[in-house]
Amino acid sequence: MKKAIIIGSGIAGLAAALRLKKKGYQVSVFEKNDYAGGKLHAIELGKYRFDLGPSLFTLPHLIDELHQLFPDVEVDFNYIKKKTACHYFWEDGTSFEAPADLENFAVKAAEIFDEKQRTLSKYLQNSKMKYESTKSLFLEKSLHKSKTYLSKQTLKAILKIPFLGINNTLDQENKNFSNPKLNQLFNRYATYNGSSPYLTPGIMSMIPYLELGLGTYYPQGGMHRISQSLFELAQKVGVEFRFRESVKKINHSNNKVTGVTTEKGTHDADIVLCNMDVFPTYRQLLQDIKAPEKILKQERSSSALIFYWGIKKSFPQLDLHNILFSENYKAEFEAIFNNKSLYEDPTVYINITSKQSPQDAPKGCENWFVMINTPGDYGQDWEKLVIKAKKNILSKIKRCLNIDVEELIDVEYVLTPQGIEKNTSSYRGALYGAASNNKFAAFLRHPNFNKTIGNLYHVGGSVHPGGGIPLCLLSAKITADLIPNTHA
Ligand code: FAD
């Protein structure tokens, strides 16, 4: 039987393991940590449970597809569709419970923001058009194989390019609303891939359709169930996992991969799929080949500072996803991307899974995942920044929600960009690999295959088509499609 080795058990590594198993490979996953899932991990602090990384779940069919590869194997994985996408709050007392449905969103937003319903519906229809006409080119195929450019679908997508807003920034594309709060609300979608709305191209206005049109979901038991269920499935179908075994080198001979060397020994393989971020992959595991410097020099996506707070009270005005907006969004993004610093009036995201899974917090309490967007780690003094950010966040919560939260904090854990890099090897602690702060970003990501070493492939957030759970899952699918079936 042909052997495949996967380096890393992030969501893309797990998806790739299942897809290669289905193709008839003997699959071994080497993981430096003692758990599977990478960024999709969870922690317990006293009686509180927290998802450590992602909190927003879209396109759940991509997970279903993996479970359906092995229809006879039972693994518990269920999710619900949310009626509300997010609760938005501003300091002047405006709040908006955004429905996760295009029509209802347009009706409600028109009322709250005194905007024409027609303008909103047109914007959302445009978002749908952009997503549907380009997904097959940008998200579902390798952009680095000539056959991609020979299909009818690609031709259709190329003909649509003049209407996709790629010559505008997302902010310019969102300027048609008369109320600046709507401009800010739609600008926020740039953060779904770790970019700035003032730099990322207008085509990103397709992202609201993913959430408001195709829906936002919650996995029963929390986000961690996504990675856990795939891990359980992979174990049941015979994928081998070797935890606490960091890969130190990718071995090759005559421009063909031959296996890997870990801290414990050397392992041969017919193919190797690397789920480690491409930057450390070249710098640490492939020191003996010429690295694609142009790709590695690309600007990285934003990172995050997260406070995990057990809160000794519950707040009916909050939902699963809550956003408290900065008064000066542009200054916030300039601080993050230009100055590599934090803004004093940050946009604060509060995720509370105990709203959906009451067992995540003691009775009458809530588990708050409180996150602000930050630059990656460029050597800033994070100890000092954490103290300052906590003060600014507490004050923002007071101004927007009129809650004195500090005295309600029961337990606390803090994750910085440095911590994210330490846990997962993501260069600079970037959440989504390279940023999409220019219109060519989609074409500049690392391909899903290695151009120098045959049978070496790359999956995950730092390669095509990009970061975020759905795109990581698509990277595994695109990659598996490049690899032939093998049956012993
Ligand atoms: P990773 O999760 O980065 O995993 C890589 C794995 O490889 C790790 O387990 C690591 O230990 C292992 N590894 C690395 N080097 C080696 C080595 N040499 N040997 C062996 N093993 C190695 N996405 C969303 O869709 N929705 C969200 O709401 C969202 N929010 C986020 C919030 C936070 C705080 C973070 C951190 C991320 C968020 N993301 C979100 C992004 C999403 O989590 C990532 O894009 C995705 O999980 C990345 O998966 P991956 O497969 O690329 O690998």
TrEMBL record:
Span of the signal peptide: none
UniProt xrefs under PANTHER family: 4,4'-DIAPONEUROSPORENE OXYGENASE, PHYTOENE DESATURASE
Highest taxon, organism lineage: Bacteria
Gene3D superfamilies named in the record: FAD/NAD(P)-binding domain
Pfam families linked to this entry: Amino_oxidase
Transmembrane feature ranges: none
InterPro entries: Amino_oxidase (IPR002937), Carotenoid/retinoid_OxRdtase (IPR014105), FAD/NAD-bd_sf (IPR036188), hydcarot_desat_CrtD (IPR054840)
Pathway: Carotenoid biosynthesis
Protein's UniProt name: 1-hydroxycarotenoid 3,4-desaturase
Organism of this sequence: Nonlabens tegetincola
Protein family (similarity comment): Belongs to the carotenoid/retinoid oxidoreductase family.
Keywords associated with the record: Carotenoid biosynthesis, FAD, Flavoprotein, Nucleotide-binding, Oxidoreductase
